[in-house]
Write a structure and sequence with these properties.
The chain has nine helices and ten strands. With 240 residues, it is an alpha/beta fold. It has two domains: 166 residues, 3-Layer(aba) Sandwich (Rossmann fold); 63 residues, no CATH class. The strands form two sheets. A six-stranded mixed sheet has the order 6-7-8-3-9-10, with helices on both faces. A four-stranded antiparallel sheet has the order 2-1-4-5, with helices on one face. A hairpin with a 2-residue loop joins strand 9 and strand 10. The protein is globular. The termini are far apart.
Length: 240
């Protein structure tokens, strides 16, 4: 498997929180579940590797290119979604899409139309008319529609009903089978159990584990535990 994203020693400090020496790789045809409790550093990590916040130090490379020097080119080749975004709340979806697709030279209209139908979105509605779950779907729709080689998503299943979550996870598996690397953060352990190959587990700004799901379970899980029970126990043991 080819490495598409390589992150080394990423750090970012705030007055009340620090992200410390985060290193990981994203490879073709893999789904990585990024798990940790609220405030553990998942969103800060994702925003840092997308250039939405400026890390204090560390190296971020996509496709063997330094992100800092090739951000525009790299963002043509990755899809990202960082939760719900209101965009222009009083503009119709079709008008927002018409502008958005001009920024992507690889915009795929057939993929857009396919996922528009999959997500049951009405192009004539405005973002202000959408539920929180439908706003998530709209954000994902844009992220998926330009043949991205890497998909980076922050809590993509948050706010979705169980049926929509299953549809999205099935879509992740379909993308993986096409060779796309998928990284998604979540606090819903069952989502990781259903589709992830690898697990990144972060706690208080430090990456505790980065390995395959099988290796994680072999190393950390006790007999009879579910993945959720394992992670809950690890969180409780850390407090002792």
């Amino acid at each position: 498997m080819k490495t598409l994203c390589n992150v080394n020693n990423l750090s970012k400090s705030y007055p009340s929180f620090s992200l410390s020496d985060i290193s990981f790789k994203l490879k073709t045809g893999t789904i990585t579940g990024f798990i940790g409790r609220n405030g553990a550093g998942k969103t800060t990590t994702i925003k840092s590797i997308l250039g939405l916040v400026h890390p204090d130090c560390g190296e971020i490379n996509y496709f063997d290119l330094p992100f800092s020097e090739n951000e525009r080119e790299i963002k043509q080749r990755i899809g990202f979604s960082t939760g719900t975004v209101n965009y222009y709340p009083k503009k119709k979806i079709k008008n927002i899409v018409a502008i958005t697709k001009t920024f992507y030279k690889n915009w795929d209209e057939s993929t857009y139309q396919k996922n528009l139908k999959l997500f049951s979105l009405d192009e004539n509605k405005m973002p202000c008319e959408l539920s929180e779950g439908m706003k998530v779907k709209f954000n994902l729709l844009l992220a998926l529609s330009h043949r991205a080689e890497i998909l980076i998503l922050d809590e993509p299943t948050s706010g979705l009903d169980p049926f929509s979550r299953d549809e999205l996870l099935e879509l992740f598996i379909e993308l993986k089978n096409r060779g796309v690397a998928v990284l998604f953060s979540t606090h819903i352990t069952s989502d990781i159990e259903k589709c992830a190959n690898d697990i990144m587990y972060i706690r208080k700004g430090k990456l505790i584990s980065d390995c395959t799901k099988d290796e994680f379970c072999e190393h950390y899980r006790k007999d009879g535990e579910t993945l959720e029970e394992t992670i809950l126990r690890m969180e409780k043991e850390e407090k002792v």
